[in-house]
Amino acid sequence: MSMYKVVDSKGREVVVEVDHYNRGLVLEKACKELYGNATIELMIGHFRITPLV
Question: Which helix or strand (DSSP H or E) is residue 43 part of?
Fold first, then answer.
């Protein structure tokens, strides 16, 4: 499992865990955590994803 910290354009952040890196999956999980639903179209380009080691 890999963990990634996702930060949106307003500075809100969340850490998500996935089996392997997949930008879409990471953003979908982050969106569900931050906003309660997956709206990938609104998220593309508005997040910074950092691998946590």
Answer: helix 40-43
